[in-house]
Amino acid sequence: MNNLITTIVVEAQDGATTQANITATSVADSASTGKLMIQRDGVFATGELTDTTANQLIKLSGATTMSNGTVSVMGSSEFKLADIASANYQAANAGTQGSYSLNYANAVALGGQLFLRLERRDGIGINDSETYSGETLTQLKAEFDARVAANLSEFSNVSLSVVTNTLQLLVGALDNNSDVLVSGNDGVVITLGNAVDKRGSLTQAQALEKSGFITQGAYNQYGFPIVIPETSTGANQDYGIYTIELRKTVGRRIVFETIKILIADDEANGQKTVNAIQNLLGLSVADVTVPTAVTSTAFASDSAGTTATSFSIAAAADIFVKVVGAEVGATIAITIVSDGSEVDVTESFTVATTTETFQIAAATSDLYAEGVELTAQAVLTDAAGNVSAAASTEGTADIAA
């Protein structure tokens, strides 16, 4: 039983490129443009065709011009439509920053120390938990910062800030296992806004490409000389990932093949490369419809959505954001942006109704300086990873004494 991995890296084309011209007409065309090659019985197919004749032999491949001028081609084996066991598509997604707030006002100090414990949710890291302490939150933060600066922390995607009795954590999105579990002394009040992993980042794409090189024998890890093929990925790109799982019978053997088509910046051309794959393979697994942007955001003083144009520091008021025109079932990431020195606070929620009010638990008015202006930003992400544009109208509010 064999298990082959084929990773094909292709480029999305300009949005003006027609659906018929979205695929390559030759190896030379693919090498010069980055287009995906789809061959049916050896003939290059154009991207709008929908003929799904059962017995035609299909081959998917991509070509790249290397730095020395040679052309490298990576392609799947030939297969029939009946050989497709499953397929799925994930659009690229930059992930969502998480924000946590730990209020130590009523913390029970242990031996005069305040504590912060961080744990990876997966629990499988080499050092998947770390504990920091200090007589004050400032000392605790300094201990954490020193360990991160020395590259001795597993939590380099975490940053801390101190506002009076509150410790704020920002958790940056990673390729995998971004989010953390947090805990502190007894009496600490914790509010959470969990981070969401990235999808289709450059490092993820290069890891998939490497897996393909290894199984196809192009990457020599152990013998001499060691051979590391040149990557077909591009800097500062993200990739939609179309996965096709094959199960074929070859002679008396069952052969499995995983095809990963990495489509650079496919959202820029209306997902036409994804549409070409689906047209020619008779698939319909990809949701490529980007959610409509939220109509508006507005600050509110309560869960009923009562409009608020300012918040008082003295009141330590809770901050709510009312959203109008959201897609039900999508994930909404709401970010509170200050025009002062305060860090952005992002929290994610699942949309239940098109008009809904959300409490931003990690942001209260006493965490901001008098006179700053807050802006409520909102972006939607659907289950397939498609990301909306920013809200058409973004609400603002001032911080008063």
Look at the helices and sheets and give the structural class.
Answer: mainly beta
Strands, total number: 23
Biggest sheet layout: 5 strands, mixed
Number of helices: 4
Shape: elongated
Stretches where pLDDT falls below 50 for ≥5 residues? none
Rounded average pLDDT: 88
Task: State the share of residues found in helices, binned by percent.
Answer: 10-25%
Please report which band the strand proportion falls in: under 5%, 5-15%, 15-25%, 25-35%, 35-45% or over 45%.
35-45%
| N-to-C span | 71 Å
Which H/E pattern describes the elements? EHEEEEEEEEHEEEEHEEHEEEEEEEE
Attribute tags:
5-stranded mixed beta sheet; 23 strands; mainly beta; 4 helices; 4-stranded mixed beta sheet; 401 residues
Task: Describe the overall structure.
With 401 residues, this protein is mainly beta. It has four helices and 23 strands. The protein has helices at residues 27-33, 137-149, 202-215, 272-281; strands at 2-11, 37-40, 43-44, 58-65, 71-75, 84-90, 98-103, 114-120, 129-134, 158-163, 166-171, 180-184, 189-191, 239-250, 253-264, 296-300, 310-312, 318-324, 331-338, 345-350, 355-364, 373-381, 396-400. The strands form six sheets. A five-stranded mixed sheet has the order 17-23-22-19-20, with no helix packed on it. A four-stranded mixed sheet has the order 1-15-14-6. Strand 14 and strand 15 (253-264) form a beta hairpin. It starts with a strand and ends with a strand.
